[in-house]
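Appendix B, example 12.
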Amino acid sequence: MKIPALIMAGGKGKRMGLPVEKPLLPFLGKPLLDWVVEAVASAEKVSEFYVVTSENTPETEKLCRSKGWKFLRTDAKGYHSDLKQAVRDAGLSGAVLTIPADLPAVTGKFLGKVVSAFEEYGKDFLAVFVPIEKREALGLSVSSTDEYKGVWYAVSGVNIVNGAKIQEEGKIETSAIITEETEVLLNINTLKDLEISEKIIQD
């Protein structure tokens, strides 16, 4: 099974108060987005990818143009709305991998494991969650959380969705991977996250 991927890179990154767009923030000398694109491009189970941008990230679009990466501009109405719009605009109706542009440690191998798990579980939605206490123990921020089977987790932003089903209203059958793996543990939401994550990777 090979599926397309959407790299979500249209948010303002307001929490970071940066002079630069968050996807372009240097991580060990290379923009965050570059790390994620390299992982997605090397993933054997990914067929193609699009970078999802918005009016908040014009410089990110310029980078995409210069590298020859396909991008989709959305209306910046929030993560879920932008995701639905990107899926619709790309004409994707089957399984779609979504990944944020701020996961610099992610690898193609890890993404392959996520696609395999989605196939195995056979549900319309797969989320990858990280234990909140694991991020807190490293001094990393916890900005986005979700509940799964009565337990709250940090959201990694790596998901697989059924492109047709997310356009419908109603409950979607969900499965999840709970992991402490570095690939999704290092999600950059603040400058402190950036500093801690760079040190972890260097060590």
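The two ends are 35 Å apart (CA to CA). The CA atoms of residues 149 and 176 lie 10 Å apart.
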